[in-house]
Specification:
Elements: H1 29-55, E1 59-63, E2 71-72, E3 75-76, E4 80-81, E5 86-87, E6 95-101, E7 109-118, E8 124-133, E9 142-147, E10 167-176, E11 183-192
Antiparallel strand pairs: 1-11, 2-3, 4-5, 5-11, 6-10, 7-11, 8-9, 8-10
């Protein structure tokens, strides 16, 4: 945490016809300007620069999927929910789920990475971060970033800036054509600045 700024320099007024302004000495103009230099250096080092350094810092949010099933083409295929993972149910070729996500306002999402297993040769696992206007106006949900690879960070499809005053955000986690193979999602990690 950045501590509160406490000024160290206090200007002592000179008095007309009483003080002699001079360059040197403890009350000289050079000494006072050097005190101001020190004050600005303290302000920059202890307060301003730590804030600036924090602006470009990459942040991570690592999510355990807690998914709610939803319908695709009239079919609802839920994931089997574990304590710290989801898995496609045995005997099915598909699973669909979504979860709400909250990211800091004005953050820009820079990558999405999924960890887990996809033992299916033909199955396609797709994880996407989507946004939709808070009143469901407009074109519907827009995909900001998506991946169909496990372990590889995907980049945004375009502008991925979070605007919480106008939009809400959620993840979709879907698998299709996975026959009876194991498909498991352990973590969805988003990187943002």
């Amino acid at each position: 945490m950045i501590e509160h700024y406490k000024p160290q320099f206090a200007h002592k007024d000179w008095i007309d016809n009483q003080d002699r302004v001079q360059a040197g000495g403890t009350n000289g103009i050079n000494d006072r300007f050097h005190q101001l230099e020190k004050e600005f250096a303290r302000l920059a080092d202890n307060h301003v620069n730590p804030l600036i350094d924090g602006l470009g810092t990459t942040r991570y949010v690592s999510l355990i999927p807690a998914l709610t099933a939803y319908e695709i083409a009239g079919v609802k295929m839920p994931w089997t929910q574990g304590v710290d993972q989801v898995e496609k149910p045995s005997g099915t070729a598909a699973a669909n789920g979504f979860m709400s996500i909250s990211l800091p306002d004005n953050a820009t999402v820079t990558s999405l990475k999924v960890t887990g297993d996809n033992a299916s040769t033909n199955g396609v696992l797709t994880v996407a971060l989507k946004g939709r206007q808070i009143a469901n106006e407009g074109e519907g949900a827009v995909t900001l970033i998506e991946t169909d690879e496990i372990g590889t960070a995907a980049r945004p499809l375009g502008d991925a800036k979070i605007t919480n005053n106008t939009h809400r955000y959620f993840l979709t986690v879907d698998v299709v054509n996975a026959a009876d193979d194991v498909v498991r999602v352990l973590c969805v990690q988003l990187t943002y600045q």
